[in-house]
Amino acid sequence: MCIPPSADLNRYDLLYDKHQLQTQIEDNRKKMASNDRVLRDARLVSSQRATSRADFWANLKSNDILIRCLHDTMEQDDGLKAAIAAVVGKNSTPAQQSKLLLAIVAELAGGLDEILNVVARKVTQYHKKQNGVAGASNPFSMEEDEDKHVININDDDDINGYTKRNNDSDCDDSEEDTGDEYYDDDEPHTSRSRSPAVKRETDALPAFSLRSLIENDKRQNKRQPERPGSASFPMTMTDSTPPPPVIKKRTRSVAGDGLVGSPSVAGSATKKLKSGKDIVFAAALITFLGKVQTMHRTGQSIHDMLRCGKCNEWKRDARVLNCSHVYCHRCVQKLRIEAERGDAVLGFRPYCIQPNCTEIVSGKTAVIFAEVMELLVWYDRQSSVVNNIDCKLYMLAKAKEKKPADNTIKNLLAEVSQSKTVAHMAGNAAEPCDLLEMARFARKWLIPERVFKDQ
């Protein structure tokens, strides 16, 4: 069958049109990406400016030293006293308002000439750099003259001086590290730093200067060093508080490394003891345990609360959101990949899929440790009047099954059993189960099963 020439021409025309459309689509994507970056930068500047102002107002309102210094200055300056009285009476003139503002700045900075010189010079350098003036220095450089105040910006900050974070932080988990090798939870903690630090020298200052009092107070108190944040993601603001210490992974001990120097049984699971100070739970997990305990004590089943909200299965590597809904680690990752709600500017974010819940999955999630999950599975099958002693006996009995030669577990199990017998003979009622306390006990002693089976 012979194909007419017109068909070939139409085919080439279609291919050409397709190429043109693909080129236009690619150009539009680049323009959209550029516009998105501009919008994100503008929102970042606006957000960090609002945060800086909020922090300034909070510090100003609670600054008793500033008030005392202004009072002392007012006693020596009748003009300032009149300006303050006029501002309080809401009948002040612009000159009186300016006088009060200058007095506040003078107390905060230690002198008007110094702060005006530094700010003016920085603005001029920034203007030259933005307009491409040759020889313009970086206005946010860390190197300054020794006799001037220094504004230090981390190397990770962008040219505008606003802190950025790594783009990976938006998709990585921020939950606590489980420490178990089978959790598949290897997400790093990110440090935070909200705004550039301002470094000032401790030279001679005028009387009643606020800066001298603050510098003296800082020398008397030890300060924790700050860690710089990463600088490739422009969306997320950072925090000025020192970052929390990174929780190191707990590793399963090898054969011969028992609980407290005791020999381990070949082929059995081992567990390294943790001190009470190391057992710290996230706030979301503490809230979840409180809700579980309340429901169980009122006779309600917690069976469905322990299942994953997406796959509806029991998993040992579970996560709990701030809304107290549970998801397994795999489903949390799926929800983040399949995020559908959002817009092109702020991005698409995954949300909890439970009815009437608007919690963001990419928010802080807390790990439900395998030991705690196994305790909750057993706790669900008990009566509403279960007590702490029964919980401890169950966990120590499970630990003895895994490590029958461990003398520490044997002695503790005998001690708890004896306390139960003594309380029963004395007619004392056992203490109701405190689920949070028992969860910490489980983290220290319970050796969970490798595979979870639905109950």
**What is the overall silhouette?**
flat
Low-confidence stretches: 142-208, 228-241, 251-276
Q: How many β-strand runs?
A: 7
Order of helices and strands: HHHHHEEHHEEHEEEHHHH
Strand content: under 5%
Question: Strands of the largest sheet, in order across it?
Answer: 4-3-7
The average pLDDT is: 70
Note the total helix count: 12
Summarize the main sheet. Answer: 3 strands, antiparallel
Kindly report how far apart the N and C termini lie: 69 Å
Rg (CA only): 32 Å
Instruction: Tell me the helix content.
Output: 40-55%
Class per helix and strand makeup: mainly alpha
Write the layout of secondary structure elements.
Blueprint: H1 5-61, H2 64-76, H3 78-88, H4 94-109, H5 112-130, E1 150-151, E2 198-199, H6 210-220, H7 283-297, E3 318-320, E4 326-328, H8 329-337, E5 341-343, E6 347-349, E7 366-368, H9 370-380, H10 388-402, H11 407-426, H12 435-445
